[in-house]
Amino acid sequence: MKGKKPISKVTAAVSYIVCAAVIIGLVIGNSYALKYQNLISVYFNQPTQKVVSSESEETEHFVSDFDSKEERKAHLEELGTQLEAEGIVLLRNQDGALPLGDGAKISLFGQDSVDPVYGGGGASTIDTSVAVNIKDAFTDRGLTLNDTLWDFYDTGAGKDYRKTQPDVYGVGAFTVNEVPADVYTEEVKGSFAEFADAAVVMIGRTGSEVSDHSAKAMDTGYHYLQLDGNERDMLQMAADNFEKVIVVLNTSNPMELGVLEEYDVDAVLWAGALGQTGSYAVADVLTGAVNPSGALVDTYAYDTTSAPGMANFGDYTIANSSVDRGDKYLVYGEGIYVGYLYYETRYEDVVLGNEDPKAYDYTASVQYPFGYGLSYTDFEWSDFEMEEQEDTYEISVKVKNTGDVAGKDIVQIYMQSPYTEYDKENGIEKAAAELAGFAKTSLLEAGAGETVTVSVPKELMKAYDAKGAGTYIVDAGSYYFAAGTDSHNALNNILAAKGKSTADGMDKDGNADFAAEVTVKELDTETYASSAATGNEITNQFESTDIRYYDPDYQYLSRSDWDGTWPETYKDGTWEAPDGLLADLEISYTEDEDATEPVTDTVDEELGRLNTAALMDLDPEDSAWDTLIRQMSVSELDSLVRIGGYATQQIDSIQLPATTDKDGTAGISSALVGGESGTAYPPEIVIASTWNVELAGEFGRCIGEDSISLGVTVWYAPACNIHRSPFSGRNFEYYSEDGFLSGKMAAKTVEGAQSKGVIVTVKHFALNDQECNRTGGAMFANEQSVRELYLRPFEIAVRDADALGMMASMNRLGARWSGGHYGLMTSTLREEWGFKGFVVTDQASFDVFAYEDLREGLEAGTDLWLNTDAGLWKLSDAEMTPTVIGNMQKASGHIAYAVANSNAMNGLSAGSRIVSVMPLWMKLLVALDVAAGIIVLCVVVITTGRLLKKKQSNAEIQDLSK
């Protein structure tokens, strides 16, 4: 009898098990796909909506300035080169060693030459496969490279030596791993003579999200910001074989560079990270096609650990806390004395006789001051003038290029406030010099000059008095304003205006002609006690962020007693915290028992159904916004607020379009979520080093161009935390140690990006100034330093550029998570600064972020959770109280307003409709489900049929045997 062979029971069982496994796998897979559908759509760069509009309607609200993709790409890449070119800082140039000129034959030393630092790790990672390498860039610009040495590093024995860094999860370590001197072959050494115009030594250091650098020595005997033994041997090799040695610092964190003075190094360039096309700029500066005009945004100390903040930088534990992510702490014991605010102030105290010269030697402490940078030409300043206006001091300086080549110069204006007895009594600290304004000249040809005018707001004269007036004050006394080439030069000019000279301990005589004095006769506690932005009263908001809230006897660093108040690691790094702190670390929010059920899912009888596009031009205070939000259902409110990771939700009831959101402070990046990336620029520290706000604005505008092209509306940037320590792993993506410079650069970036409809989220708000324990760590700082240093960049971005988004930090301010801190998110951000947009959390997609509580955050003023899990943070029906729903409506209004002012509205008008579409990946998933279902059904049917046939056959055989 012919036919299919009967199936065995074992084979049938296996078939059924496989089919069951396929069905279970599909169920689980579909479940996760639906749970993370927004993230998957972002990853595959697929739309989830389309717009239906009348052809007669004007719907393109934000458009590109370019006629073609090629034209746009060329401009964006050229901007990357220009940012790097103007950000490069010339630190040393002995006997005119640079520029090299065209056609120079050079030998490139260091494994960093073939593996340079283009960006940093984590959310700002750039795709190095599209970056221009050093060899191609240098060759393109006319330099001739030693190929034997290049090949040694690239494919020869040197290929086994490469720097390393931790991954995005913090796994791994920062290592230098330079090639040891004994690995260089005789062939390599023999190649030096032919390419002897210069030895260009590349020194590389990188940084990354999640991990900081350690001030402890590595296995090499040196810490990460020091040149190690192999690098020193490499410098010696270069010095022994070349008459001209040039060092290029492909680094972001301030290095200890005193060792370069021990070797015969002729020139030093700081280049920072290069971005996609910055290698061209390095070549241009070496050849002289570009005259370097950048200036340092950090103080370079001989000993990086000499900064007072280093006493409290690292991993410290609250030993008796069992609160989830609430067992780490950090005390900003240095107060306002970060970077040059410390080094310059202590120097002045020595000169004024308020500090023992034996206790502090500025010249032995600081190698390169904040704002320092040289040029291939010389500039002469004259005709300093200061004119008082109603709200500003207009300070002008004539700058003339007295050298032989064209160049740009930077006029920096510093202010000194009086340090009074009132200040000492009330714990107010004053720095000897504080950046108050700056401007960069145009490109001045040899012999040409221009008058540079810098506008300094009088508001900068205020200081925060938490203990006395409980608001901002202006002290009585003498205020000095000085122009300088850097912070130290400006301070010397101020000291000269005070009648001081080298006879008093100054390291160099200043010039009193570049300083002006303003006298305030009486203490003013009223002028700045109300917000200039909103008119609201300004009062203490960060009392519980101050460690003295829990430890009243604690003393912050004070210039009234440097040695007596010098910071020590708080509680030696292990703190048995008081009960009050342990209680405050717990999640806390308030239910309004008298709150009535908010009106939801309701259309206004008079206005009819509104859509978001109809309200695009309305002020956020207009009542129509409340009417619009009342159209949303409770489930829509919940979805919009709670699921905001890398995308915001489409809301049909108000025709709010969805957005795609991405990271990347150096350009829109697909590093974490896939999809397409935009142009990768040098990071923010390089942008700040240009001291060119117009370039920062163009950078923002070009981010906007990529935003329109890629369909990415929300940009998780710019980043505005402070270089509190040289060792922070994320200093590359923050601007500076100075809050004013950071704020001005951020504001121009925001202005440029928002001109193209980008929603920025200025981050990380606030006190996220180290990576260690950024997740839940309790950061303690006094109110003056919080306001004057750490919040200043964010404030400038809001007040100067009307930033539409903020990103909360993952750390705590004192005991309270930043997103749950009402004083930060509402009292300061909205009521003082006039912020109108939305606040999004940092990462909130996993249970590990459970302390970023939804109800606590909503109450404080946080609006959107960076959460990709549709099930996470979901509240029960009982938990969806009138208070929670009301807070969700408020948050939804903030989100809707920001989206309404973004390029997500392109294609939309009052008469258009948003229609949901199924993305291609979901169609493929449905097709897979159907195909798998058919296959499983067929297998089950066939297997079952063959089992039945076997059973029937066995029965027939038994009948025959009878």
UniProtKB/TrEMBL annotation:
Keywords assigned: Hydrolase, Membrane, Transmembrane, Transmembrane helix
Family matches, as Gene3D superfamilies: Glycoside hydrolase family 3 C-terminal domain (3.40.50.1700), Glycoside hydrolase, family 3, N-terminal domain (3.20.20.300), Immunoglobulins (2.60.40.10)
Record bears the keyword Manganese: no
Database matches in InterPro entries: Cellulose_deg_GH3, Fn3-like, GH, Glyco_hydro_3_C, Glyco_hydro_3_C_sf, Glyco_hydro_3_N, Glyco_hydro_3_N_sf, Ig-like_fold
Ranges in coiled-coil conformation: none
GO biological process: carbohydrate metabolic process
Domain Fibronectin type III-like: 409-487
Domain of life (superkingdom): Bacteria
Protein name (record): Beta-glucosidase
Source organism of the structure: Faecalicatena orotica
Phylogenetic placement of the source organism: Bacteria, Bacillati, Bacillota, Clostridia, Lachnospirales
